[in-house]
TrEMBL record, chain A:
Belongs to the ABC transporter superfamily. Its main location: membrane. Part of the ABC transporter FtsEX involved in cellular division. Important for assembly or stability of the septal ring. This is Cell division ATP-binding protein FtsE. It is a peripheral membrane protein. It is found in: Cell inner membrane; Cell membrane. GO terms for molecular function: ATP binding; ATP hydrolysis activity; transmembrane transporter activity.
TrEMBL record, chain B:
It comes from Thiopseudomonas denitrificans. It is a multi-pass membrane protein. NCBIfam families: FtsX_Gneg (TIGR00439). Residues 1-26 are annotated as: Disordered. Forms a membrane-associated complex with FtsE. One of its GO terms (biological process) is cell division. Its main location: membrane. The chain crosses the membrane at residues 62-82, 209-229, 262-283, 308-327. GO terms for cellular component: cell division site; plasma membrane. Belongs to the ABC-4 integral membrane protein family. FtsX subfamily. This is Cell division protein FtsX.
Length: 222, 337
């Protein structure tokens, strides 16, 4: 589904985000990307979201070369991807329901369809009873669940999460990870960037370890 | 919940795949209908959202509309005043008549023959013959010298023709005067156009002033709308970034702001229309009073329905363009982070 073929990303200031990274991610896989700050985790995510383009190599997502994708096609690519942010990126002037419904409004779905899908997504993150509340009334963990619901509501093929448990205590972090595993079991490819090695080790999924933009390990977390 | 993206389908437009999957339309016609419906849904949502945001800030929105209204009503009001002056001037043009005085020895028959010739002249709207007797009678009544004139042995006044030209064109009039002077039995031709020319020059100056003022105010209006939209964009920065990350196109991001600009235009246009209607009604009280002192029933023509709708459409377009310029400039700066 995703193929990094000697992908490099060098920034204008000389910093190297990725150095000839070659990785293949299969459909339905659950993958952790780990490493210290500046290792290249976020660069990988940004490349997959077509927020940046590789400076060398080839990056394919579902056969589409993200190095050559036209700007006008990027929004349509992103509709296939769900994104979860460390800081949730919720809109606090809207209800939980409206936050989750945002990607569906972009798709132009009918009100009935939106209601059905948002309810389902909130059900999956156990927040259906909070639908009409503003995000500010929720705990940090619940806010992150809203972010996840928004990321999965349009049934993406790929779910990206950049440090999704960075602000959470271990118990909440484990709960959030359980939600990601549920989503993955339904067929969605999940890629999580995290530096929480203890948490990753408990989950026993494939883990890529990056260091200064280079892949130094690829295998099951232990 | 299931992953539907078929892996490794080169060249396939992913958005199309998504829509196909979401709605499962088996027939192309159904797909087109669904996409049209989605497009309409999206527009309706953007429109309602923009309207709601404007209504939610009544004071701020009102003052933005008021600034637009003032910027629009000034040139529009001055143009309408100028049109009224033009119409008034046109009625005064009748005073720009040419008087053709015949020699004293000219008979009525000769004068009427010339009258008949001139009635078919292409540059002349109307010709009126004033006989020597009529001239004496008019002069007696207007001058108050009736008694003195009656004691004169002969009527000293010649017969004359009063000619109303079709247009107040200085060159054409000079040509007409020249041809009248060369006609038989004509003693003198009088034409006084100076004040008409002055009025025309003042009106032309007024038109230029209003044109320049309109340009300046349109620029100011675009800036006002642009700045208002810029503030809305700043307030929704996070939302825009999220929308872009979850697949919103630039068109989708731009749409509510364009509706907002157009709605500000509607508000400003309606207010400008109201201001003009009220302003002209207020002015008309004094104008009709002044006109009545000159035995005239002149009154200012206000904002016609056509002018009102033109004003409204212009306001909507300017609001839309102002918003477009602001969004085009600021969207480039708002990349997802």
């Amino acid at each position: 589904m995703i193929r990094f073929d000697r992908v490099a990303k060098r920034y204008a200031n000389g910093h190297v985000g990725l150095h000839e990274l070659s990785v293949h991610v299969r459909r339905g896989e659950f993958l952790f990307v780990t490493g210290h700050s500046g290792a290249g985790k976020s660069t990988m995510m940004r490349l997959l979201l077509a927020m940046e383009r590789p400076t060398a190599g080839k990056l394919l997502l579902a056969g589409q070369d993200l190095g050559k994708i036209r700007n006008s096609q990027i929004p349509f690519l992103r509709r296939q991807i769900g994104v979860v942010f460390q800081n949730h990126q919720l809109l606090f002037d809207r209800s939980v329901f409206e936050n989750v419904a945002l990607p569906l409004h972009i798709l132009g779905l009918s009100r009935e369809e939106i209601n059905a899908r948002v309810s389902l997504a909130l059900e999956r993150v156990s927040l259906r009873d909070k639908a009409m509340q503003p995000p500010s009334d929720l705990s940090t963990g619940q806010q992150q669940r809203v972010g996840i619901a928004r990321a999965i509501v349009h049934q993406p093929a790929l779910l990206l999460a950049d440090e999704p448990t960075g602000n959470l205590d271990p118990k909440l972090a484990a709960e959030i990870m359980a939600v990601f595993e549920d989503i993955n079991r339904l067929g969605t490819t999940v890629i999580i960037a995290s530096h929480d090695l203890a948490l990753i080790a408990r989950m026993r999924h494939r883990m890529l370890t990056l260091q200064r933009g280079r892949l130094i390990a690829d295998g099951e977390a232990v | 919940m299931s992953a539907q993206l078929t892996p490794d389908q080169p060249g396939k437009r992913i958005g199309a795949t998504e829509r196909h999957r979401v709605d499962s339309p088996p027939v192309e016609a159904t797909e087109a209908r669904v996409q049209l419906q989605a497009w309409l849904n999206s527009h309706r949502a953007s429109f309602l959202d923009s309207a709601w945001r404007i209504v939610r800030q009544p004071f701020g929105s009102f003052f933005t509309c008021l600034v637009i209204a003032v910027a629009l009503s000034l040139p529009m009001g001055l143009t309408l005043l100028l049109n009224n002056l033009n119409q008034l001037g046109a009625s005064w043009q009748q005073a720009a008549q040419i008087s053709v005085f015949f020699e004293l020895k000219t008979t009525d028959r000769q004068a009427q023959a010339l009258l008949a010739d001139l009635q078919s002249h292409e540059g002349i709207a109307e010709v009126q013959w004033i006989s020597r007797e009529q001239a004496l009678q008019d002069f007696s009544s207007f001058s108050g010298l009736g008694q003195v004139l009656q004691e004169l042995p002969d009527n000293p006044l010649p017969s004359s023709l009063l000619i109303t030209p079709l247009q107040i064109d200085p060159d054409g009039l000079q040509e007409l005067v020249h041809s009248l002077e060369n006609m038989p039995h004509v003693q003198q031709v009088q034409l006084d156009l100076q004040w008409v020319e002055r009025l025309a020059a003042m009106l032309r100056l007024g038109e230029r002033f209003i044109f320049a003022l309109t340009l300046v105010l349109i620029a100011a209006l675009l800036l006002v709308v642009g700045n208002t939209i810029r503030l809305h964009i700043e307030n929704r920065r996070t939302e825009i970034e999220v929308i872009k990350l979850v697949g919103g196109t630039d068109g989708y991001v731009r749409r509510p702001f364009l509706y907002m600009g157009a709605l500000y235009g509607v508000g400003g246009g309606c207010l400008a229309w109201l201001l003009l209607v009220w302003g002209f009604a207020w002015l008309n009280q004094s104008v009709t009073e002044l006109a009545s002192l000159y035995a005239s029933d002149f009154r200012l023509a206000g904002v016609s329905l056509d002018d009102g709708f033109s004003l409204l459409i212009g306001a909507v377009l300017l609001g839309y363009i102002g918003a477009w310029l602001a969004v085009a400039r600021h969207l480039r700066e708002l990349l997802p982070s």
